[in-house]
Design a protein that fits this description.
Order of helices and strands: HHHH
Number of helices: 4
Structural class: mainly alpha
Distance between the termini: 51 Å
Shape: extended
Largest sheet: none
Strand content: under 5%
Helix content: over 70%
């Protein structure tokens, strides 16, 4: 792809992001809420110590992208009766978005 096409693509995508930023914000809030919901449910299973908190957050961090990736995979399975070929790509993209959102929302504990 030539440099001119790449510049045009980034300008068009930037305009698209700016026009849809409120929807993207709602989507990120939904992902973070799902992460917190799963972590809260797992408090009944894991202890409140450091290891329990780490395991709860780890399962939530891995579970949310897997759940979101399984949605299109399930629809694909119903329609085509075979495994969705881009499942792991979707999981990785959602995982990266989720990690970015969690990092942005992180508040360091006050000492």
């Amino acid at each position: 792809m030539s440099i001119v096409k790449q510049i045009i693509a980034i300008i068009v995508l930037s305009v698209f992001v700016l026009l849809s930023i409120s929807y993207a914000h709602q989507g990120l809030q939904l992902v973070i809420s799902l992460h917190e919901w799963i972590a809260d449910i797992l408090t009944e299973v894991f202890s409140g110590g450091t290891i329990g908190t780490l395991l709860r957050n780890l399962i939530a961090l891995i579970g949310v992208p897997a759940i979101i990736g399984l949605l299109p995979a399930g629809v694909y399975w119903i329609v085509k009766r075979r495994w969705f070929p881009y499942f792991m790509e979707i999981v990785w993209i959602v995982w990266l978005i989720q990690v970015g959102a969690l990092i942005m929302m992180y508040k360091a504990p006050v000492i």
